[in-house]
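Researcher: We're teaching a course module on how sequence relates to structure. For the next exercise, students receive a sequence and then see the predicted structure as tokens, so they can try to spot secondary structure elements on their own. Here is the exercise chain.
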Amino acid sequence: MKFLSLVIALSIGISCSLEAATFTVNVTLDGTAAHDANPGDGVCLTAGGDCTMRAAIEEANANSGPDVILFDANFVLTGVSLSAAVGALPTITEQVFINASGITAYNSGAADLDHAPPMFGISGTQVLGSTADGLHFSGSAASGSEVTALSIINFPDNGIYISNGANNIILRRNYIGVTGADIPAGNEGYGVYAFQTGGHQIGRRYDGNFFTSLGNVIANNGDDGVLLFQSDNNRLYGNRIGLSPDMTENHGNGGFGISIFDGDGNSIGGYNDDVSGGNQIAGNSDGGVQIIGDGNGVYGNDLADNFAASGLSSPGDGIAIIGTTNTVGAADMGRNAIRDHDGAGIVLGFDGGSAADLNVVQHNLLGRSGELFPSNRDGNGIGILVANGSTNVILNNTVINSDGRGIDVNGDSNSLAGNLVGVTGSIGGGLTTEGNGSTGIRVVGNGNSIGNVVDNPNIVGDNSDGIVALGDNNLIRHNLVGVGEDDKDLGNRTHGIKITGANPVVEVNHVGNSALDGVQLNLATGNFASSCRINSNFIGILPSGRAMGNGADGISINGSSSGCDIGFNRIAFNGGDGINTDATALGIAWYQNLMHDNSQLGIDINNNGGTSNDANDDDEGPQRQINYPAIISVGFNTAVSPPELTVQYFVDASEGNVSYPLYVDFYWTDRDEPMQGRYFLGTDFDYDTDSATVSHTMTLPEGTPGGFVAATTLDADERNTSELTQGVMFGTPDVIHIDGFGS
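Model: And here is the predicted structure for the students to work with:
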């Protein structure tokens, strides 16, 4: 009989040597009569002639080396309710393989072994005190033990406790805090608690299908579902934590689903060719996963209300991390799906406390897509939150339907690229708006990078503000804000990009369809052209020429802004001015911007509809209200090839009121918008005499029939720039868009 039991043990995957003793539990009684009659004789036998759970552990502890505990094949939804007279089961101090999956009824009617409820359990309902655990592994000799297909319920402390050097414990297909009949029966402490031990395997190996490859059910416990305290290199996969076994109801644990405290190198879930699969985690009172440690990975998990999409929210955060070099998410099946959390989907660091630096958050889905679940568009409170952290990478995530911000970063030198924020889909494959309740991306800190990857932009749409940067030296480059390469309107509900701080760089972005301004600047004093740049953006228009106008100004300059260069932008089809300043702007240099089809002026200083020149330019105010060039005459010579345009002009300004030399930019425009600048013609860099009348000649493209010429003045020293002149006609301006400038 002993040999036959050993064959059964080996056939269900238990690794043990031929010297292992096998003990088969055949009764469910407990109490003083449940002790082994002669521990160490290699036979599980009470004085009454039976093998109890208590006697089997006593005999295994007395027998050096690995042992096997099996269960009578005829058990059906039964187990041992431990007696108050003897209390908890003995602490396991030797390697033992406890396996109840050989019970005949175990897998009857189940789709597979992973969905089969345990047929045998251990209950601590009658156990007195507050420290009794369901199973306790202690000591290095217990390392490598396994527990399979047990229900462990109603203990005053933990379901399973691992301590004192018992490493490499394997737990699979157990119900911890749930009966085999799917009745909540939580333990009062942690579901699984590993203290200063490591290398544990909690769950089932990945077999190609995350949704049928399931490990333990850990639910209804009084504290965390799993706590790994100062425990390294553990693997948790395929578990249902905080959910009913069929994943249709929240049966949350009282703390976090999984908590790692001061632990490194742990893996929660897995992906692709890895050997593990993700966990399903929901409904836990403090949140889904908490990690305090370094070098941990979280992959391929589903953190949601439940799989029935009932709309129940999970308290707390989805994944919360303090530490460095942790990774959350990977491509394809390594993506974590996180939704319906009252806090943040993913949070790094603690506001006002510990930081999280050098972490990577990538390829995750934050929020439930209405395309996949049309009746249930559920997001998190905030999608991704860096509460306190620097040099983190936030890459290729989809963040939708958050109640608040999509991505909120508080810290320095963080990098964000390739994220879909408020939109789903892909460039070329169609993009759909699934907006967040507040700002799409907000950074508060210095030296952060938003975008900056040519072929992997952040796409930000259907939020309140698209991108907000608060702090100094932040970079916003290569983003699609309110637009997609499929020309679809993904507009944000207020501003496209909004900046407060000194020395931002905003370059090569496409910004359109905002309800208000495309770009709004609220700048602190900058360092002029060397640091603050708003360059080479398409604002209200795509590179193809398609109109994607913002509802108000293309660029709005507010709030005592000073010291910035705005150049080489294309600003068109906006509902207000191309560039607009309030009454406090100083030292803002704009040049070579192409502005057309804006509803009001190309440039409006002081937001008053245009400012007239004054004698000697001796007035003050925004941009020192520098005078624009007065165009006296225009000569258009078509006898040469290419044709030439000679502009005679002067700038009414005295030395002391401006700093010579001045730079004068010339623009071509048409009859419909004579105070804008559709095409840049050239710059006179040599205007260096008080109020002198000079001429400047420029070549035009072949075939130019005429148009209007307008100009601006730039004080190259103080960096103040004027409004555009009223355009002066040359040639035949009624024939437009057949010239060499473009269409």
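Model: If you want an answer key for the exercise: The CA atoms of residues 228 and 571 lie 55 Å apart. The chain has a mean pLDDT of 90.
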